[in-house]
Structure formats: structure tokens, C-alpha cells
Write a structure and sequence with these properties.
Elements: E1 7-8, E2 13-16, H1 22-29, H2 35-38, H3 46-59, E3 67-73, E4 76-87, E5 92-99, H4 108-123, E6 128-133, H5 138-146, E7 150-161, E8 164-174
Parallel strand pairs: 5-6
Antiparallel strand pairs: 1-2, 2-3, 3-4, 4-5, 6-8, 7-8
Helix pairs in contact: 1-3
Length: 178
């Protein structure tokens, strides 16, 4: 993938994550109440946030690359979102996101994902974008449905975190629905 694709919306700057974002990212990922929805265990150390930023940067160099944007609102990082596991032969990828508790409920993630989906369908020539969501994560399910995603079914025990296997619901959006 070429240079990092910075995107702008009415209220957000979607940009590459840097080491300076680690404290804000750590604050989001250490939130034990939200972690069941993120598919990982809560972070316990700032070094884990630095490692995650490195991982997101490495996505762009993988055989099935991805892009993870930092969401900046009023000069501060409030979350991330991204397209990853890009299968160029199938023109498909996965979508993931998270938002700081203080930024939820204001339509910011919807605004960010609309921009990311527009970019993905246009620049990556995607046919299909899918998202996996925990069955009890009602806010994320509602967000995806507002964005035009269709609920397809359940992947039984497809995830593993918090010491046990987790079911995940599959949602998708196709290019002709965009």
C-alpha cells in the first residue's frame, strides 16, 4: 500500500496513529467494561498500546494488508477504525472500530465509518466488507445496520477472550448496496 490515506469528515480527522497516541489508546483499551466487545482482554500496561500502534502500522505491509485510522476530534484521539484482511482476489475485507466512552452517542463513529467505507469501496475496489460483533453488543449491531450492513448469521465460538470462546455475529455490506 502507498502512503497513509488521511481522511477528513465534518468533525473528524482520520489519520495515521503515532507513538504520541499511546496514552489515549491505552485509556480506551484498558476499559474492562468495553473489552468484551473489542475481542481482546483489557490492556494493563502502556507498552501494550505502543505495541498495538506498531501492529496497526505493520498491517499495511502484510500480504493481505489493512489500514487502521486514528480518529481525532477537537485535537485528541477518541478511537480508531479500520479495514483489514484485504483479500484482493475476492475484493473483500473486514471492518473494526472502537471509541472512547466519552465520545460515544454523538454519531462520531458513524461519521468515521461512512468515510472509511467510501474510501474502501472507491480506492480498494471492494465488493464486500464484513464485521464481526459479539451477540450482546447491541450498540455496534445498531450502528452497522444504520450503515446499511446486513446481519448474516452467527459464527459459533469463533473468538476467544476473557478465558472462553465467544460467538460472533457476521454483518456485511456489498458494493452494490453502497
Amino acid at each position: 500500500m502507498n502512503s497513509f490515506p488521511t481522511l477528513s469528515t465534518e468533525r473528524l480527522q482520520l489519520r495515521e496513529l503515532t507513538a504520541n497516541d499511546a496514552p489515549a489508546l491505552f485509556a480506551i483499551y484498558r476499559d474492562a467494561e468495553a473489552m468484551p466487545w473489542f475481542g481482546i482482554d483489557p490492556m494493563t500496561d502502556l507498552s501494550q498500546a505502543h505495541a498495538l500502534i506498531t501492529t496497526f502500522a505493520q498491517w499495511r505491509t502484510q500480504a493481505n494488508p489493512g489500514t487502521r485510522w486514528g480518529l481525532e476530534h477537537d485535537g485528541r484521539l477518541i478511537g480508531t477504525c479500520g479495514l483489514f484482511k484485504w483479500n484482493r482476489h475476492w475484493n473483500s475485507c473486514a471492518l473494526a472500530c472502537e471509541l472512547a466512552p466519552s465520545a460515544r452517542g454523538n454519531g462520531l463513529m458513524s461519521e468515521a465509518l461512512r468515510s472509511v467505507l467510501d474510501w474502501g469501496f472507491a480506492q480498494m475496489h471492494l465488493h464486500r466488507v464484513e464485521a464481526l460483533v459479539h451477540p450482546q453488543n447491541r450498540p455496534s449491531q445498531a450502528l452497522l445496520e444504520r450503515l446499511g450492513f446486513t446481519r448474516e448469521g452467527v459464527l459459533r465460538e469463533a473468538g476467544f477472550w476473557a478465558g472462553c470462546y465467544q460467538d460472533l455475529q457476521v454483518f456485511s455490506r456489498l458494493s452494490h448496496e453502497h
